[in-house]
Amino acid sequence: xxxxxxxxxxxxxxxxxxxxxxxxxxxxxxxxxxxxxxxxxxxxxxxxxxxxxxxxxxxxxxxxxxxxxxxxxxxxxxxxxxxxxxxxxxxxxxxxx
Length: 97
Known about the structure:
The protein is mostly beta strands. It has one helix and four strands, in the order βββαβ.
């Protein structure tokens, strides 16, 4: 491989690695400010930002951002919970789903 080459990742060929974790991060949506601090710290790149549509009082929709954890690849290391400045990620015992 030549220096500076980009290795393309095919998620469909990636093995699921999240089944054996003991602890599972859970996002407290009411505390998450979508600051994205946790995203670059995840060693498995299992955290992404998503939009949530919320309906307000008069039927108007508001889009709010929140992080989402891909539990198929999350190993439950807890780094995301440690670095979250809002303490919006907590570690809970794995319920295997």
